[in-house]
Amino acid sequence: MTNQTPAAPGASATPADRLKQAIGWPLFIAQFITVALAYFLGSLLPLLPALFETITTAMENPGAGTVEPDLGSATVAFTVVCSAVVGIFIAWLWLRREGRWAEAIRLEAPANWRSTLAWAALGLGVTLLIFALGAPVTEALGLEAPDPAFILDLVTESPAMLALWIVAVAWFAAGFGEEVLYRGFLMDRLERVAGLRGRPWAVLVIQALLFGLPHAYQGLGGMLVTATVGFWLGYIRNRCGGNLWAAIIAHAAVDTVSMSLAYADKLGWMTG
């Protein structure tokens, strides 16, 4: 493995003195583009009924002006879930072709769960701190502060939607899915290409920047804050010898806390 940072005590680690078998840049680019495209197209699947209804309505009422599709909270949640499912499936096809799924996507039980959970707890705490400092820092830099209001409005629509978003999005699509794709698939691929093999810090930076891009709906400030979180989660993955469970748990816990606090704020609990 390219990571030269020693793994946490008891963590499941690959040999630190060998590099991962190389892959060429053309193969990496093909893999990255197809997985990214699958991730995007997967998000469209739950939208098809609403889009079809919108097009039909517009055709039947040509003078009605612009007709916006009716996208409910559940529909948007399932766009995130479908993105993760389709993206992971394409990544699995590539890695299965090379016989490297288990090597790249380290989901085996950690040798030391106590150490893993400690890293997950640290990941939760530091990530919440990053989010807390994100708004003032980005504003001080003259950038638009992160604004996840669109998503949080959907999450807090009702108790049922809160539960759906926590289970389907926070724990599956984001916690599990994004960690498998970014800290698993993407980092493994980057660790194998020429110029990045044996350079774990460069890999961390690149995967973090790519992690920030899909969060463009939060503005430039949101992308930078998310990239910082991605760097931190990648560091945790490396410290755990490539095992993903600490990063998965930390990521899912962060989203669960954020969603729960947003719902509590909507109910007025945060202000007494």
Offer a concise description of the structure.
This protein has helices at residues 25-44, 48-60, 73-98, 101-104, 113-140, 149-155, 159-190, 200-212, 219-239, 245-266. The protein has one domain. By secondary structure, the chain is mainly alpha-helical.
Walk me through the structure.
The protein has 272 residues and is mainly α. The chain has one domain. The chain is 68% helix and 0% strand. It is built from 10 helices and no strands. The chain has helices at 25-44, 48-60, 73-98, 101-104, 113-140, 149-155, 159-190, 200-212, 219-239, 245-266. The protein is globular, with a radius of gyration of 20 Å. It starts with 24 loop residues before the first helix and ends in a 6-residue tail after the last helix.
Structural class: mainly alpha
Strand content: under 5%
Identify low-pLDDT runs.
Answer: 1-17
Q: What's the number of extended β-strand segments?
A: 0
CA-CA gap between termini: 51 Å
How are the SSEs ordered, and which strands pair?
Layout: H1 25-44, H2 48-60, H3 73-98, H4 101-104, H5 113-140, H6 149-155, H7 159-190, H8 200-212, H9 219-239, H10 245-266
Name its key features.
mainly alpha
